[in-house]
Amino acid sequence: MRALVNQRFTTLAILAVVIAVLPLIFPSSYYFRVASLVWVSALAAIGLNILMGQAGQVSLGHAAFFGIGAYAVAIGPAHLGLPTWAALLIGALLSAALAFLVGRPILRLKGHYLAIATLGLGVLVALVISTESRWTGGPDGMPVARLTLFGWRVTGSDTWYWVTGGLLLIGAWIALNLDETPTGRAFRALHDSEVAAQVVGVDVARFKLQAFVIAAVYASLAGSALAMMNGFINPDQAGFLHSVELVTMVVLGGLGSVVGSIVGAALLVTLPQVLTVFHEYEHLLLGLIIIVSMIFMRSGIVPTLSSLFFQRTRS
Amino acid sequence: MKSPSTLKYMLAASAISLGFSNGALAQDTVKIGSVLSVTGPSSFLGEPEDKTLRIYVDQINAAGGVAGKKIELVIYDDGGDANKARTFATRLIEDDEVIAMVGGTSTGSTMAMVPVFEDAQVPFISLAGAIEVVDPVRKFVFKTPHTDKMACEKIFEDLKKRNLTKIGMISGTDGFGASMRAQCVKVAPNYGMQIVIDETYGPRDSDMTAQLTKIKNTAGLQAVVNPGFGQGPAIVTRNYAQLGMTGTPFYQSHGVASKSFIDLAGAAAEGVRLPAAALLVGDKLPESDPQKKVVTEYKKTYESATKQPVSTFGGHAYDGLFILVEAMKRANSTDPKKIRDEIEKTKGFVGTGGIVTMSATDHLGLDLSAFRMLEIKGGDWNLAESGS
């Protein structure tokens, strides 16, 4: 137990140090921008990992919640005159409410059926966003008012680096702690065997729903952060491809691993930037890297590497 | 660890002070940036833009560059993803330190990049269609393609001349179609147009007979307008002919102004009218036309370099690049703010899209005369006789 607490603390401390030290080697604020994108995506991926890695349920429509969070901070100030921070909270509440309402029936489904149902949810939300152009600006998207906190206008890549980095730390802290609570243990019991979990008295439906709602709130907050950072939002962020991207981050980095989600997000965000030097081979190489790491690191990058590392040190 | 970084700061400081004291020591190249959708669903727009920029930058450099400086072109492909476009825009500004940008294939990616260029105060000439790029006017943002509002006005002008006032609309729900539909609905009353039926289709739909049947059966229908781009309009055109509706005049938008539309729609495209730039009918323009020389030369250069038929989309990139280059020549400087001021003073620039005269309140600089009403006849573009 003590070792686990320490491990948790070490993980967080390393993450905090990485966030604090990275800016020292950044030559320009473009790097701040890319890193902020990594932190935002990682936040959404960590949330999805609670659902997929810990509770063992798949969601192929997670970008829907990302989109709800993003459009909340866009629509709130523009159409309803709400302050941005209030819109952010309302977005998170809306996502939680939608996840709660929809989650109950669809989480009864298993495997492919659950995947299809969540996919349907994602497509529906994306469709509403791109057709209700009076509210959302339609397929071309809409501008997002800058976040103002106590008279301080939050702009600039470096400012957003710290804001998103802070959000990620909090998100990672909660996810790491969750693992050791009764809820976290119930999630893992679900993941390993639903029947066994039910036999030992875990309320399967309730915990699945909890994981879904938590994951939705993470995605919603990440979406709000991205929208405020960009000052602009369009329906792509709520679309199917973005959902797949989030799932890829989780699976590539490692199911059930918080650090894995961050590594997965970092790879999927930075690789396209690094690979631009290869021009037309960019997509080919990106696909190749993902395929190769999935073949040789079945359980994801971080779990595979850490088990390798610990085996070495033990022997 | 400490000494190299101190050295770096000292070098940087001395470089900055040198820069202030003597401008002539600056490099002899300038960087122009571009973010285009070379791949993805908008690649039919982005690819000719990409090729055009590369061909002409090489040509300008071979001729000695602009004001003694060679142009270095930095192009990134956003794959049609607005969020990626935004990141590349930051990269162009922060990492590549470009002095100006010609790019932004779609309205979505343009709008995502606008705040970056406004904040950095670097001129951005967009290649996107919708009017919201330049309305309201933003200090550093310009664009070259005609707006969707102008396309509606041109179509309605033509309809009015033909005494047709009751129209049906069938629009794509993609960005282009939705935006143009909204503009058409807005300007229709100015031309006495009455929209008797208003249908839509999804950008990936493969059959629009249901919507067209509904339009066909609408009482009093005199003409049909189809705002959309990509493959949708080609399918609408085919279905239109299959339903035997060709007796009713049919208008497409400037969004289909590439040869591939005629290829896709085949014989069904006969008699379809659309507003488009002079570029498509360069060889049919009278000698007296001021755009004749520019459009025929662009067509020749593009087609001989790429072995592909010219489209108006590449033409927008040509216009953007040369508006910028001429502004750089006039400014005789690489200061983005001075270049911006000169872009705004562009007057009587003859491009492939029309004759451009910008002002502080007009960052597009084209009027309705920039559009020609074309009619497809014999599998080719022809100038339509107005009022016929």
From TrEMBL, chain B:
Keywords: Amino-acid transport, Signal, Transport. GO terms for biological process: amino acid transport. It holds the Pfam family Peripla_BP_6. Coiled coil: none annotated. Residues 29-365 form the Leucine-binding protein domain. PANTHER family: BLR7848 PROTEIN, LEUCINE-SPECIFIC-BINDING PROTEIN. Belongs to the leucine-binding protein family. This is ABC transporter substrate-binding protein.
